[in-house]
Amino acid sequence: MPDDIAPTRHQRLGSNAGDPHSRLDGIAKITGAARYAADNAPAGLLWAVIAGAPVARGRVARLDTAAALAHPGVTHVITPENRPALHKDPDLRAALFDWKLDLLQDDRIRYAGAPMALVLAETAEAAAEGARLLAPEIEADPARIGFGDGLAFAAETVGIGAPPATAVGDVEAGFAAAAQVTEVEIETPPQYHNAMEPHAIVAQWQGERLVIDTPNQAIVMSRPSFAAYFGIPPENVHIRSPYLGGGFGSKAILNPAQILACLAARETGRPVKLVLSRAQMYGPTGHRGATRQSLRLGVDAAGRLTALSHHAVSATSSFDDFLEPAANAALNTYACPAISVSHSGSRWDIGTPGPMRAPGEATGSAALECAMDEAAHAAGLDPLDFRLRNYAETDPATGRAYSSKALRECYALGAERFGWKTRPMQPGQMRDARGRLLGWGMGTSLFPAPMFQAEARATLRADGSAVVETAASDMGQGAWTALAQIAAEGLGLDLAQVEFRSGDSELPDAGVAGGSGHTATAGSALYSAGRDVIAQLTALATADPASPLHGAGNRAVVAADGWLRIEGEDHRRESYAAILARAGRDALTGRGKGARDPAHAEARAMFSHGAVFAEVAVDPALLQIRVTRLTGAFAAGRIINPKLAESQLLGGMIWGLGFALQEEALHDRRSGRLLNADLAGYHVPVNADLAEIEALTVHEEDRFVNPLGVKGVGELGITGTAGAIANAVWHATGRRVRRFPIHPEDLA
Ligand code: MOS
Known about the structure:
CATH topology of the largest domain: Aldehyde Oxidoreductase, domain 4
InterPro entries: Ald_Oxase/Xan_DH_a/b (IPR000674), Ald_Oxase/Xan_DH_a/b_sf (IPR036856), Ald_Oxase/xanthine_DH-like (IPR016208), AldOxase/xan_DH_MoCoBD1 (IPR008274), AldOxase/xan_DH_MoCoBD2 (IPR046867), AldOxase/xan_DH_Mopterin-bd_sf (IPR037165)
Largest sheet: 7 strands, mixed
CATH superfamily of the largest domain: Aldehyde oxidase/xanthine dehydrogenase, molybdopterin binding domain
Bound molecules: dioxothiomolybdenum(VI) ion
Pfam families: Ald_Xan_dh_C (PF01315), MoCoBD_1 (PF02738), MoCoBD_2 (PF20256)
Low-confidence stretches: 1-14
Number of strands: 30
Structural class: alpha+beta
Strand content: 15-25%
Organism: Mangrovicoccus algicola
Number of domains: 3
Shape: globular
Strand order of the largest sheet: 3-5-1-13-10-11-12
Protein name: Xanthine dehydrogenase family protein molybdopterin-binding subunit
Radius of gyration: 27 Å
GO molecular function: iron ion binding; oxidoreductase activity
């Protein structure tokens, strides 16, 4: 490993950005002072409970609405028979990023848990009891669940979420030229987001204005989706989402509960609160669709890829089209002259899947990294050596130069910290002191570094402090903290001098907290809003004969610590407050936008990268698999807050552990219901599942992604990790398990 590579955990890059601040909202959250959506209880509130379908397919023949209405607390029961009209057909898509919703449009059942009725009552208990009293009579049809039973279809026949087939070079010629061809088929199961905070909404109407408290990853952007159902302008929708207890993608899209609550509030003229139960989080709120992936890797005698094909069949619902774009990872990860990527779908009687924790890259990289491990072994090469031989110097899909790519440094740092170089080539060679089989595996992490559109406002106040505003979403990742740090840097103020306002659709649009692009996008908007303030302030000072900065001309004016000064002439300086006071201004407002420079977007491939190394220990008698060590090294451009970035990367790696060994939704084949719709049966990692974990970052300058040099760390850590763990399981046991999660019985 080169000597100059060192972890940059606590690097200082600026007076604010670069500092490992703790979350600004952390104390409020852990002391219970933070008010989440479901904590709101406006006067006159009605409680709503969704009665969900007990089977996955069929029709509701009868509901005992009379029994429910006879309950003393129940006020209304809304079913397809009396459901008030909506302005928009829920089976039509109004916007591109829109899902078809089950909103009591008819008596069909399309998945278990789909709404059959909405019960409204004076108390939560009465609403729940009313829902039970409905005692549905169901005409059930057999559920079609699983790749064997699902209806296959070509991705080209659908619209949203169906990735186009892509080919680079001549794949057949590439396979013909290969010295060896590795073929791998891997399945990944349905997975559910399981945010700690359940989906919840408090909806109230003020005339033609709809006011909503709901956790939301795309606060301003989602207004049109709500508005379309009620025929009101998007500006009439006011969404408040100050805190989210996790999202993982599920709070980026609408769910039926949200629209039904708004509808009920309009119908009853009262505020309505609807909180999903934990069990109801498995059905109508999206999930990660199952995949069946086929990979072929051609490798020449020198250990170089000659051809790579990756086809994914992704499960979706019977009525909508989102496909987990699993195969796309093959387009951008390794150098290869011929790559072919395609997707098709399989329709199951399930709720429509959606984005969840690196949608596509997580599932795709899990399969690709397993296939790469097999190909390396077949070629007689160390897995890291094999990846270095196939290092992509330019983006394989487009040939574009990378905006930055410090993956080689990640491989070197991760391998060094992990101790990779002593790894034996053959499996089953290592044991720990307890006699357990030890195995080491690795994987490459890759995630796009996108930017969306965002706006922000910064207002400098007479006392020299500032308010910055953008409707960002903090799911717990620390977005507000990192964004406030960026805003402070743009303003040349200490973080303590900056009041950050967010989480409300009345504020400028911060875009979506998704795609790992929130910090880059909203951060760029905040930064440029701050720079706009400084430019105005500079103009005021330099034009004023009474200012020490008067007539600065072309000399550089620096803004820092609440002062403007002329570079190299430090006695020529003036505080922000003094400039405003003499100009007779109470405040100065600046505006900024965040979006990618289209010229750079055209010319450069932009990705975050990383390398994950895993050690597992397998008990030879019980076949229990434990992850004993995980080391990740990541390059994600400029790190704004090392403490929060490390937490996000660790979190991503822990998602990868859950992916590899635990997370899976199990369907009852007859009813189509989930057998494990709770956190007792749907396993996610806890501290005891992981002995030792480390996330390191390597320094990476990027002049193209955005002026801040920020890429993103939200989803990077899950990619590479699941494959690294599966490869470690093989290295311990000699068993290639082709289905995630890997169970002890798979090793028997
Ligand atoms: Mo995410 S799955 O980018 O919210």
